[in-house]
Structure formats: C-alpha cells, structure tokens
Amino acid sequence: MASRRRTLLKVIILGDSGVGKTSLMNQYVNKKFSNQYKATIGADFLTKEVQFEDRLFTLQIWDTAGQERFQSLGVAFYRGADCCVLVYDVNSMKSFDNLNNWREEFLIQASPSDPDNFPFVLLGNKVDVDGGNSRVVSEKKAKAWCASKGNIPYFETSAKDGINVEEAFQCIVKNALKNEPEEELYMPDTVDVVGGNRGQGSSGCC
Amino acid sequence: RDEGAATSSRTHLVAEFKAALERKVVDLAELRRLACQGVPDDPAVRPVVWKQLLLGYLPMDHALWAYELEKKRSQYSAFKDELLVNPSEVTRRMEMTISKRKEHNSEGTGFLPRAEIVQDEHPLSLGKTSVWNQHFQESETVEQIDRDVKRTHPEMQFFNGGSSDALSNQESLKRILTIFAKLNPGIRYVQGMNEVLAPLYYVFKNDPDQSNSASAESDAFFCFVEVLSGFRDNFCKQLDNSVVGIRSTISKLSQLLKRHDEELWRHLEV
C-alpha cells in the first residue's frame, strides 16, 4: 500500500430550525421527501457511498438541530469536517440573516487549520413554496453574500421536488476534497503504536 | 396459548391496579411496586396512575381529588387569561382603567376627559418592560413552538392529519408550551419538550372520564411541569457550565458508559 487515501468525507449541515436540513439530507440519500420529519434533537447522521473521479468515498452527512440552544452543547462532531453546508429558507429573511452566525460558530467550534479557505456550500431551500411568490431573499442577495465570503458555491434547492439536490451534493463532495492534504497521498505505511484499529476515517494531519 | 396467558396476566395486572386505586387513601408504596413492572395501557388506569403516583399531581386521599383538580384547573385557566392575551389587548385594558380613573377624577373639575396613550405601551417603544418589547422577544419562541408542534408525532391522526380534533390537540400543546415558556423565562422552550409533553396529553385526553378528558390540557400542563422539574437545570443555558448543568450531566453519562462498556465509550470519544 503506497498511499493511505482518505475514503471518508464528513459533511456538516447547519442552518435555522425548519429550513429543511433533514429533508435535504433525506432527499439526497434516500430520494424521498416526507412531511413527517420530526424536529431534529441534537444531531443525527446518514451515510452514502459516492463515486468521484474514479474514487469511492463514504459520505457521512451530519444533520443538526436548528435551535440555538443546542449549539453550545454537542458540537464535538463539528471537528474533522471536510465541508460545511449552510442552509437557509428563501422564504425567511431571518434564516438568511443568521447565516453569518452559523458560519462563524462553525469556524470557532471546528477550528479548521485554514479557516479562510475552509469549504462551505450555501443552499437556498424551499424554492417550490407557493410557486416562488412568498420568496423574500433574492438570488442576487444570496450570491452577493457568497461572494463576500470568498466565493462560496450557491444552489437554489427544493428538497420537496428534488430540485438541484443531487447537483448541490456533487459540488459538496468536490469541495470537501479540495482541502485534502497533498502529503497524505504520499504517506508511507505506518506502524500504529496505539494498537487499536482506528479505521481509515480517523487518518488525518493532526 | 402464550397470547392467552399474556392476556390473562394483563387482565390480572389491570385488576390489581384498579384495586389499588380504589382504596380510600391510595397506598403509594403498593402503587409503586405495581408500577415498576410497567403501567398497563388501560384508559382507566394509566392516566390516574401517571397523575398521581408518578407525578404527585393527585393527592393520595380520594376525598381531596375533586378539590385539588378544581383548584389546579382554575389556576391553569388564569394562566391562559393572563399569559396568552396579545399586547393590543393588554394596552386596551390599561387604557380602559386609566380612562375610567380620568372620568372619575374629572367629575366636577370642568376638565374634559381625553384619551391618553399609556406611556411606553406602543409597538415602537424601546422600553425593556414594554409589553410590546416582550411580545417581540417571545414571538421567536412562539414561532419555534408552532413549527415543532406541527411536526409532533406526524404519523398519528390524533396530532396530525388536519381533522378538527387534531388541530385542537395541536392548539392545546402550543398553549401548554407557551405558558411554560412564559413562566420560565430562563428556560423558555427547548426543542424536544414537545416530545415529552405529547404522551402526557395523549393519555389524559383519552381518559374515558369526560371531565378528565375535557381538562386534559390543564392536567397535562401541571404534570409536564412535574416531569421537567426533575431535570430542569439541564435546559437552562446559564447553568451549562455549572455542576447541575447539561454538560455535567453528559459527562456523568460518559463516565457511566466508560465503566460499563469501555470499548463503546472509546469509540464515541474519539
């Protein structure tokens, strides 16, 4: 084995309560939409096998509770994330205004080695609602925000109708790989002094 | 045959519970002993056992039940009147009191009574104590409650599906959670409380006794408060870093897990 390629990609979904985080994750992983999701308490995750440029990955998607109260508690799982997906509801200005808080909170809690270049992807969800008539955040406004944060990729999605969900997650995978440390590809076989098999998911640069 | 045996032991258990509940003064130790095997899902048993034994809402002495329930239910009704009125109504009531007083004062003085804006009680007021300011702060909580109540047990017709009963049950859950949030400003509403409340309300609402079923909302409110009182500090953000807060509770759980299943504990910690 010449290289220890990373096969696990960890993605965290953040955003206000009720913007559709659970629905987006389920639409992508299970190709299903339901009105019957309960509010997410704490955090939950799903995994999906994905292929990207001839490599196979296990995508581990972490869905989180939207209420602020949960932020100060279980955020240990932010650490080691390869990409952070921010979600807002295009019909709710407040959910858009809170994006700054979510982004900053993530950077503080996850403390990535290169915060300025950490990959985020923004999703404006629920574009199907009311045929777009109740929309309050324009695409232009969302794109301007993305530009101001170092050109964050942006998608307008409907978890309900499956619009742009596949495309968005393709982009998420691509961006999650962006910060894959080069040297990792040339890492020689190592002796695991800890003794336990920690699995490939915990390989990293720390 | 096993099924028959199970049914007969369940019937026997229900009968034991009923006998225990029919005593003039309920023997709490006896009821607890019975309950540790589970309280059967019998509409004549479960609501009263929950209210009484587990939550101390009903007194042990039957003779006091009617009085106690009456007292609590009217207290809840007062909470609704006091806490669920909208700010316009509060302002209107204040103005009425003031104008009444004015009318009274102006008698015989020759001054014409005129309408007066209650100081600081208007939507643009910046005063911290203004009912409108409180209203805007609370509206976020109310919106969160609304979102979560709509997705509480979505698979059950009782809570969901658009029937008028389901809608009225949702309204009850919303009122209970809103009143609790207003009475407990340090805690307000935390996602998941809806899941704690729902089974209480469901069981009380399905009580075959008409008057109990009609008061399910108020009974569920007080029992919900009782349930939460055991771990309310975990909900309070200001206590997160104290020995009674949620972080400390989580680390106790982690220590317990470590003691009983170190391998799983290590897996979760890494």
Automatic annotation (TrEMBL), chain A:
Pfam families: Ras
Localisation: Endomembrane system
CDD domains in the cross-refs: Rab7
Keyword Transferase: no
Key words of the record: GTP-binding, Lipoprotein, Membrane, Nucleotide-binding, Prenylation, Protein transport, Transport
Transmembrane feature ranges: none
A GO term, aspect molecular function: GTP binding
GO CC list: endomembrane system; vacuolar membrane
Coiled-coil features, chain-numbered ranges: none
Keyword Glycosyltransferase: no
SMART domains: RAB, RAN, RAS, RHO
Domain of life assignment: Eukaryota
Membrane topology: Lipid-anchor
GO biological process terms on file: protein transport
Similarity section: Belongs to the small GTPase superfamily. Rab family.
Annotated protein name in UniProt: Ras-related protein Rab7
From TrEMBL, chain B:
GO molecular function: GTPase activator activity
InterPro entries: Rab-GAP-TBC_dom, Rab-GAP_TBC_sf
Domain Rab-GAP TBC: 40-270
Taxonomy, superkingdom: Eukaryota
SUPFAM superfamilies per the UniProt record, alphabetical: Ypt/Rab-GAP domain of gyp1p
UniProt xrefs under Gene3D superfamilies: putative rabgap domain of human tbc1 domain family member 14 like domains (1.10.8.270)
Any one GO biological process: intracellular protein transport
Protein name (record): Rab-GAP TBC domain-containing protein
Organism whose genome encodes this protein: Aegilops tauschii subsp. strangulata (Goatgrass)
